[in-house]
Amino acid sequence: MRFNRMMAIVLLLVSKRRITVQALAEFFEVSTRTIYRDIEALLYAGVPIMSTPGFKGGISLTENYYLDKQLLSSLDFKYVLLSLYQLNIQNDTNKNSIINKLELLFDEAELEQIEQHARQIVVDLSSWQGTKTDDAKFILIQEAIKNYQQISFLYTKLDGSKKARLVEPYQLLFKSGRWYISGLEEGASKLFLLDRAKQVELGEVFKPDENYFEKGFVWEEQNMLLFVLRIDRAIFHIFDSWHQVEIIEEQDDFLRLKIFAEHNAWLDNFILSLGSACVVESPESLRAFVRGHVLDMYQNYRGDEGRGKTNDESGS
């Protein structure tokens, strides 16, 4: 197996310090051309092999090269390569570079087997409507995080209003099917939905907070609400993609849901749009709001029971 042979070459170089290509070919019972290909792959992977000409020449490692005793096995590297294959992030040059290096450790039959396993389970982090613009934004924020640069962007809130933000980014977080920007805004840890951040631009370099990841974050939207709804089963698909939804009771004709979401005008109008298929059970403040709007709607249409009917239908 090529991987095992290449790792053995490194171990031999560590122990013998210098050895000829011919000796390696005889030891592994392969051709010198094969050994040269292995050495080329090791060089590409970053192993500092040097060649010394002459009677006592050969190949060796640079003098200060240190090989960690906690070596990964062939199976370990296979799982790393398999994971990278399965992780679909478009235009990620770092990922592609690592894949290219790891592929050198395996022969064609092994690579074919790994690729076959990779096709069986795929983690695709892109959206169905993903665009090159989305990819560019993702890569730009990655660069900002790596270089500790501020980012500015125009952020759209759920009510449709927009606000310019200036953030020190520390992390791109993938949770519950969506990407978030985690960072500091005016000293406070916040999360922003990546989809709602537009016109992203790099800013000035900032001094990173060494304790950032020990802090808890706060949502960019502050007014979060825990509420309970009773809904018709037929409309559950509407809530299926919501992040923090828990089914707390199931009956033949309805579901009872516990939901944690931002309370704003959009949520109020959304619940009203569901009509009789949705009943707010708690909190009482939200229930009272819906009840008040329903009564207002009733007053608007009160007295219209006979409108549009024919004389026969109205009993005249």
Automatic annotation (TrEMBL):
Gene3D superfamilies: Winged helix-like DNA-binding domain superfamily/Winged helix DNA-binding domain (1.10.10.10). Signal peptide: none annotated. The keyword Lipid biosynthesis does not apply. GO terms for molecular function: DNA-binding transcription factor activity. It holds the Pfam family HTH_11. Residues 2-57 form the HTH deoR-type domain. The keyword Transcription applies. InterPro entries: CBASS_pafABC_assoc_protein (IPR051534), DeoR_HTH (IPR001034), HTH_11 (IPR013196), PafC-like (IPR028349), WCX_dom (IPR057727), WH-like_DNA-bd_sf (IPR036388), WH_DNA-bd_sf (IPR036390), WYL_dom (IPR026881). Keywords: Transcription, Transcription regulation. This is HTH-type transcriptional regulator yobV. It comes from Listeria fleischmannii 1991. The lineage of its organism: Bacteria, Bacillati, Bacillota, Bacilli, Bacillales.
